[in-house]
Amino acid sequence: MMVRILFNLRCMRRIYDKNVSKSLLKRLYSAKFVGPDVEKIRNFSIVAHVDHGKSTLADRLLELTGAIKPGSETSQVLDNLPVERERGITVKAVTASLSYVYNDETYLLNLIDTPGHVDFSNEVVRSVTACQGVVLLVDANEGVQAQTVAVHSLAKKNNLIIIPTLNKVDLPRADPEKVKGQLQSLFGIDPDNVLQISAKKGWGVQNLLEEIIKRIPPPIVKLDEPFRAHIIDTWHDKYRGVMCLAYIHSGVLKIGDSVKWRSDSKQHLVKYLSLLKPQEENIEKAIAGQVVMVGLGPKGGGKVGDQLLDSKIEESNTAATESGIRHMVYAGIFPSDQSQHTQLSDSIRKLALNDSAVSVSVDSSPALGQGWRVGFLGLLHLDVFTQRLLQEYKAEAILTAPSVPYKVKLRGSKLIRQHRSDEIIITNPLQLPEPQNIVEYYEPLVIGTIITPVEYIGAVTTLCVDRRGTPLPSSSIDEHMTLMQFVLPLSEVVIDFHDTLKSLTSGFASFDYHEHGFHPSSLVRMDILINGVLVDELSTIVHTSRLEFQARRLTTKLKEMIPRQMVQEVEITRTLQGHNLKK
Ligand SMILES: Nc1nc2c(ncn2[C@@H]2O[C@H](COP(=O)(O)OP(=O)(O)OP(=O)(O)O)[C@@H](O)[C@H]2O)c(=O)[nH]1
């Protein structure tokens, strides 16, 4: 019961009104495509720091190409999940196939609008695999921010053409020349190549569209080879089963073609084939270089990362769908009532299809019953996942306290045999072996990039050192802004680091991080006993230097939250040294 009071993070949000997206789609009208010609295809993505205007630019591009009517009342048309509209953020990359006539030729432009928040960066990573270029959007007022650095290096790593574009030039405080200087000093971008637009007012957007056609090359594909595509997104359709967004690498795909998954050799027929403009437009045939929606019917399946092949290709690889995603945070998800277990299980399965970044494994708890241990890319990802469960599937869930994964090196041949390895990853504090069976503890570190005005360098350094961070060399972006880097423990970053950084720097600093592997650390499991009984769900793994602070913070909270008459004593045990703290 007490556990529920503390950790029942049910999202009490407004119920999803399905009519939102339907009425929206009604307002869209379609332009006629001339048959695809690879030379006239451009696949590109809009990448930027959070809130620099990606979705607003996507709206203007949709208007210019006739996919939506100009002056449409609904803004951020591609952000059509209720959670995206409520929070004003993009969490899913969305594709729109647009047609545009330039120099009397009709071009097919596949636009992918991507999220900006670091927790959804996997969507960006996946999107760029279907692109030959990106529009790197930078707010001309805020200038280069931490995610600008991250998406620029991602585009470079994938050898994509980058179209640097300054947005929000209509703002009185916009300083395009200063931001061009930042792009030059950080990335070596020639200021003459930088475009200037106002996505909100539509200024310069047509020029940008034509620059996309001129600067980004058509995809290099093999039309005469057998059909092969890779899956960049999937979602569940109530009537048609799994629908997949596929980027075609070679060959041609037609309705009725026989295909198979690379991960299993079973044959299927292509039942649905559409362009997303962004509403579905059925097509009979798609060619290499296109991004299309494919459905194989209710039993057809489909997973992000897998490949769809012509059934005559003799190739299979059961590991084809391994994502390589490293989960940053794990939490237990349990039904609020065990009678809801089947429904919640079904909802999690369907949502995990659309949110391929989560990992789901079965879990159980003495207090909460049967449930799942779910891995997320960060706390915002966890929050959005539970909100989507409630809004899109009406599934209420109880969440346990989130924890980062740890690693331990085991002692004892029996244990090593049992785990088939001398090292195990701990995603649940309860899995931690007894201290005498552990040779070494490891915790995950990240390299954090912070871009801050120079006057906050001191405050940022103090925050990072307090969070056990080690500074790396910093570099000046211009006379006002500095790029700082720190090696930080992931556990110190995921909970409230971003909010604290924002409040210390009056909202001016931005933060991004990438993983830096597991490193040896001094860790201990902190157990909580209430009325002498160990409450499994309250156990956490903490760094020994933070044990007392964390213990006092948690017991103070428990003291406030648990009705006094129900508790005689709250006790904290430290398994390693057997210390007790009583409140
Ligand atoms: N003044 C001005 N405001 C803009 C412009 N472009 C976007 N905005 C505003 O900036 C805010 C963020 O715009 P979005 O398009 O949601 O930004 P985003 O990059 O898609 O955001 P995420 O998907 O959450 O990363 C909104 O309030 C927009 O109205 C512009 O050219 N000028």
From TrEMBL:
In which domain of life is the source organism classified?
A: Eukaryota
Question: Which reaction equation describes what this protein catalyses?
Answer: GTP + H2O = GDP + phosphate + H(+)
Q: Which GO terms describe its biological process?
A: positive regulation of translation; translation
Enzyme class (EC, first level): hydrolase
Q: Per its UniProt record, what CDD domains does this chain match?
A: LepA (cd01890), lepA_C (cd03709)
Could you tell me the EC number(s) of this protein?
A: 3.6.5.n1
Concerning its family, UniProt says: Belongs to the TRAFAC class translation factor GTPase superfamily. Classic translation factor GTPase family. LepA subfamily. Belongs to the GTP-binding elongation factor family. LepA subfamily.
The name this protein goes by in its record: Translation factor GUF1 homolog, mitochondrial
Q: Which organism is it from?
A: Leptidea sinapis
